[in-house]
Amino acid sequence: MVRFFxxxxxxxxxxxTRFFLAAWLVLGHVLIPKASAQELFQEAADFSPELxxxxxxxxxxxxxxxxxxxxxxxxxxxGAEPAVVALSIVSMLAHGDDPNHGPYAESIKxxxxxxxxxxxxxxxxxxxxxxxxxxxxxxxxxxxxAIQDSRLGPALEQAVRLIIQSQAKNPxxxxxxxxxxxxxxxxxxxxxxxxxxxxRNAGIAVPEDAIQKGIRFFIRCxxxxxxxxxxxxxxxxxxxxxxxxxxxxxxxxxxxxxxxxAFKYVQRAPQDASYQHYYLYYAAQAYFQASPKLWKDWNxxxxxxxxxxxxxxxxxxxxxxxxxxxxxSLLSLALNYRYLPIYER
Length: 345
Fold this sequence. Notes:
This protein is mostly helical. The protein has a single domain (7-341), classed as Glycosyltransferase (Alpha/alpha barrel). The chain has 13 helices and 4 strands. Strands 1-2 form a two-stranded antiparallel sheet. The chain has a two-stranded antiparallel sheet with strand order 3-4. The longest helix has 18 residues, at 49-66.
């Protein structure tokens, strides 16, 4: 199978999608040439591309320096979780270097090997929770068509099939911790929906009904204030509401009252310090999808904040370990490169 985007190939097999040109024409971005990575999309006088590149590459260097030979990371217990490995891989892909021969190719290959070894060959289930499965499916979708590995297509199709089958058995039409769960929450469900959108972008068949059932679960969890709760319409916070904004945007539902109310809530909600880097990962995408103007301001502040909080060895520390915090931080910056199809507006 192939991606359904019109595309061309760089040497080494990297797929470069034409939505970059469309984004440039529509949004008026200035392309900044770079030596090794995908061109940087910078709006004039918005921020220093040199600072962004310094921060991003320093974070990537931390990841490749600390990765274990088996493809996982050493920080316990999260560095060995397939979800963390997956997000670390995606942060490397998002920089735009050739994933088959570029500076991060070996790390990406080791990470893919690790994820594939964590999957159940009979069911396609990756890891021990649907968090792991969802983010790992996202990584498979983003590497499929870009990495020269014949195993990726079948693994991705099987992973998507498990997500669809799990939803079909769930009375709420969504997902929680295991494929057999009969309850659901917005964080696990958000990971599955983003994975399904990425798989669809990669050319894998994803039923529209599965998307719409998942969106309906989110709407059930939306509170009168516009935010999203965890398992019901209660106790909203900024992180879960950013997840809700993203999945509605990817479902092309940005003109709905529900989306408008959710994004307004994201703008006024305080950042959850306990889940800072998880929040940044989703909030960056929510702002990017909702408003080019507001994302521009949010992005500038985020670059400055992350530059100031990054340690000299490239790491950001957080509740879920250095690897997750660093990968999440990098992915909140990755929209500046516009390389991955899931970051299409």
